[in-house]
Design goal:
Blueprint (H helix, E strand, L loop, with lengths): L12 E4 L3 E19 L9 E7 L14 E8 L7 E5 L9 E8 L8 E4 L1 E7 L4 H6 L2
């Protein structure tokens, strides 16, 4: 299980093979702006990635349509760059609300046995008002 880490990457969360996914429920509903993937071991780093987001509609007081899945970002993690790489959310997402994200990776940087996820951050801001949440329904 991935656990929150504040200020540094967490331990390796190993996934068998060179492709797979992790799904994460966020602490609160946000309007996503960027995704950061941080890695420390080159061979087990995910390479080609997509991040999806959606709102499960767990808040019964606010009618929010569920089932809308947004492609938030599509990127390749580059070993020649910084360990922490940030990717902007696609413009097509607009002001879509998410409380759950899924990182899918279709390859890694060479480790055939496993891929590690060290730290995935979702940057964004909380909706400014209940009326904004209601407009998403």
């Amino acid at each position: 299980m991935l656990k929150p880490s504040f200020g540094e990457h967490g331990p390796c969360f190993p996934l068998k093979g060179d492709n797979g996914f992790v799904q994460i429920r966020l602490r609160t509903t946000i309007i996503p702006e960027a995704i950061t993937l941080e890695h420390v071991d080159k061979s087990s780093a995910p390479k080609n990635c997509r991040v999806y987001g959606w709102h499960r509609g767990y808040n019964v007081d606010i009618a929010i349509e569920t089932g809308k899945i947004f492609l938030l970002a599509e990127f390749s993690y580059d070993l020649e760059k910084s360990n922490a790489q940030t990717f902007n959310v696609l413009d097509s997402v607009g002001s879509g609300l998410v409380d759950t994200v899924r990182l899918d990776f279709t390859s890694n940087h060479g480790n055939p046995s496993h891929t590690c996820i060290y730290r995935l951050q979702v940057h964004g801001h909380e909706p400014t008002s209940v009326s904004m949440l209601a407009t998403q329904s």
